[in-house]
Amino acid sequence: MAKLQSLDPHTPMFAQFQEKTGPIVLANTFVVPKERSEAFLALFRRQAEFMKAQPGFVSLQMHRGTAGSQLLMNVAVWESTEALATALGSPEFQRMAADFPDDIVSYPHIFEQIDV
Predict the structure, then answer these.
(1) Which of 33, 80, 85, 101 is deepest in the core (most CB within 10 A)?
(2) Do 72 and 32 touch, CB atoms closer than 8 A?
(3) How many CB atoms lie within 10 A of CB 11?
(4) What residues contact 94, with CB distance under 8 A and at least 6 apart?
């Protein structure tokens, strides 16, 4: 299973589920060794198909870092923190998450849009 790290050590992602809000954006940056990139993306696509069918899912995009970067970033929009938490907690999602190699590091964080 990928190793989860907090992007903001003062606000771990799982603590963010305590705040009931929406719509939200899950930004998840992955550090993926270059030799694992294609295998990671194959697993991620399988997981993404599952998530797209879940209640409250809105959209998803994957981005790759430039200039030979080892970073991949998933940006997913959900109707609410509750919908995301339910999808992440499902046994099927948990089984798929366990398939990711231990040398992948994931930095997930939940955001909400603000006016600027």
Answers:
(1) 85
(2) yes
(3) 13
(4) none
